[in-house]
Design a protein that fits this description.
8-stranded mixed sheet
């Protein structure tokens, strides 16, 4: 009601400044067109959720990670036939070396290097290295070359982690197919399978972690919560892929319906009597984009989970991250592995990572 009372004078001011006809058009979009689009247009919802149309930065040379500020990285593609969309899919991937290994192989990253030899060298390092490996599942919009993601890769590298960063279908240089939840989870599964196939040949397997951010928390939760079924149905494996050493969720939500319901922008339409029916209900039973992390993660009580969330997060409210934490805790019994949540007063990205370094190392051990 407070928002409604605030909107009334705003519309009056708009009418005086923009004119009655323009203001009336804005009002119609606000209370009629937007609710109808949310309720009846799956394409509109999918584009809004994944925002893969936003590809920033522009003109990225994905084949050269150094052009994006990445030292010790290589680019490669994983190609497979998607069972979800029944088409060929190419996934663009960066593998970034830990700092110690980059110093060891620094000369191999000079211009005009033989990329086949470099790829073979880095595959061998994955196979023989005992250093941890981080698979990064990014959030919606932009690409693996986005500046805030590059900052995170450098953090992993400084901690001496291998980093595997990739783009789902519809993003960056990966196959341009409109994403769905099952589609991006399938892509993540293929990358996870590729990595496990390599390190399975090692005498001592290095620890593998998965880090999901924002929408990537929903993707990674779906992947790991259903790893046994996905290994069987998508990969045709009789033995499921192993769970990682731990899952780190940065700014997660419990499910997409609650993320929409409690999103700060929802205040603009929450006063509408049909808010729940138009804006929230479509996300409760839509297989294209449910992202029910609170359901998926209750199915894997043996997976250590670390949740990082800022109290002042304006994109994914802290409240829905807390709801996810509570749902996982309620599903676990005494003796199950830990689920830890760290709430930060500031959303400054570097500050969060520095504050949580010790927590991540605890999981790694």
């Amino acid at each position: 009601m407070k928002v409604f009372l605030l909107l009334v004078p705003l519309y009056i001011v708009a009418a005086l400044v923009l004119g009655a006809s323009i203001t009336a058009g804005i009002f119609v979009v606000h209370v009629v067109i937007a609710p109808l689009l949310f309720k009846y247009s799956k394409t509109f919802r999918r584009n809004l959720i994944f925002l893969n149309i936003a590809k920033w930065p522009l003109n990225v040379d994905y084949d050269d990670p150094s052009a994006s500020g990445i030292e010790g990285g290589r680019n490669f593609n994983i190609e497979y036939h998607s069972k979800v969309d029944n088409c060929k899919i190419k996934i663009g991937v960066w593998h970034i070396l830990p700092k110690s290994l980059y110093e060891k192989h620094k000369g191999s990253f000079e211009p005009n290097v033989d990329k086949e030899n470099l790829s073979a060298t880095l595959d061998a390092e994955l196979l023989n290295s005992k250093l941890p490996i981080m698979i990064y599942c990014h959030g919606n919009s932009n690409t693996r070359a986005a500046a805030h993601r590059v900052v995170l890769y450098k953090f992993f590298q400084k901690m001496d982690f291998h980093t595997i960063a990739f783009d789902y279908r519809g993003y960056a240089d990966s196959t341009n197919v409109l994403p769905t939840e099952d589609g991006v989870v399938e892509d993540s599964l293929i990358v996870y399978d590729w990595l496990n196939t390599i390190i399975s040949k090692a005498d001592t397997k290095p620890p593998v972690f998965v880090w999901g951010h924002s929408l990537g928390t929903g993707i990674s939760s779906h992947l790991l919560g259903n790893l046994q079924r996905l290994s069987r149905d998508i990969l045709g494996r009789s033995d499921p892929l192993p769970l990682p050493k731990g899952l780190i969720l940065e700014a997660p939500f419990n499910n997409l319906a609650d993320e929409v319901k409690y999103h700060p922008l929802a205040k603009l339409v929450r006063w509408l009597p049909y808010f729940e029916n138009s804006f929230v209900s479509p996300f409760l039973s839509a297989p294209e984009h449910e992202f029910k992390s609170d359901l998926h993660l209750t199915q894997i009580p043996d997976l250590p989970i670390l949740i990082l969330h800022s109290r002042d997060d304006v994109i994914v409210p802290h409240y829905v991250g807390k709801k996810l934490h509570e749902a996982i805790l309620q599903s676990r019994q005494d003796g199950h592995v830990p689920v830890t949540m760290h709430s930060n007063p500031s959303s400054v990205h570097d500050k969060i990572l520095l504050q949580q370094r010790n927590s991540l190392l605890v999981i790694a051990l």
